[in-house]
Write a structure and sequence with these properties.
The chain has helices at 16-27, 42-78, 82-97; strands at residues 10-11, 36-37. It contains three helices and two strands. The protein is mainly alpha-helical. It has one domain. 11% of the residues are buried. The structure holds zinc ion. Zinc ion (ZN) binds next to loops.
């Protein structure tokens, strides 16, 4: 529940984040939790999901640019090196994953 006002509503779409959380809770023997948006909250939830997706896209582009600049720069200075590629990949992964700190689920649209 997002606002706790209603017992029924639109459930969050299971993706790998929600799947991981469920698996973790199962491992820890915690009761399963469902994320539900009621009809009043749904428009706000859709908006927040759209913002999350936008951030995700821009971070992926940023990660790609970071990787290219780092690898191209190190090739220019020291020639091709595996360490520069690995450092670029690690940095790019960090940038791409940063938006997940503010993860927001997608909600199934009520037909
Ligand atoms: Zn609500």
């Amino acid at each position: 529940m997002l606002c706790g006002q209603e017992k029924s509503g639109t459930p969050a779409q299971a993706d790998f984040v929600i799947g991981t959380v469920r698996k973790l809770r199962g491992t820890l023997n915690l009761p399963g939790k469902r994320t539900i948006a009621c009809s009043q909250c749904l428009p706000e939830c859709k908006k927040r999901r759209a913002e999350f997706e936008k951030k995700l896209r821009s971070h992926r582009i940023g990660a790609g640019i970071f990787f290219l600049i780092l690898v191209a720069g190190s090739i220019a200075y020291a020639g091709f090196g595996l360490r520069a590629v690995l450092a670029g990949l690690a940095g790019a992964a960090l940038i791409a994953l940063l938006p997940y700190a503010k993860y927001f689920p997608e909600f199934e649209s009520a037909d």
